[in-house]
Amino acid sequence: MEAQLKKEEENQTVTVAEMFVKALEHEGVEYAFGIPGEENLDVVDAMCRSEKIQVVLTRHEQGAAFMADVYGRLTGKAGVCFSTLGPGATNLITGVADANGDGAPLVAVTAQVSSDKMHLTSHQYLDLESLFRPITKRTKMIVRPESVNEIVRLAFKYAESERPGATHICIPDDIAREQVPEGVARKLLNHPDSNREYADGDSIDRAAVEIARARKPVVLVGHSAVRSRASEALTAFANRLRIPVVNTMMAKGIISYQNPYSMWTIGIPQKDFANMILEKADLVIAVGYDIVELAPAKWNGGDGHRILHIDSRPAHVNKLYQPEVEVVGDISDSLNRLAQCCDSKEEPKEALEIKERMVREHAQYANDLSFPVKPQKLLYDVRKIMGPEDIVISDVGAHKMWIARHYDCYKPNTCLISNGFATMGIAVPGAIAAKLVESKRRVLAITGDGGFMMNCQEMETAARLNVPIVVLVLNDGSYGLIKWKQEDRFGRHYCVDFTNPDFAKMAESMGVLGFKLEKTEDLIPTLEEAFRSQKPCIIECPVDYGENTKLTRHLKEVMKELVQDSPAPVV
Question: How many C-beta atoms lie closer than 10 Å to residue 94's C-beta?
Answer without folding.
Answer: 19
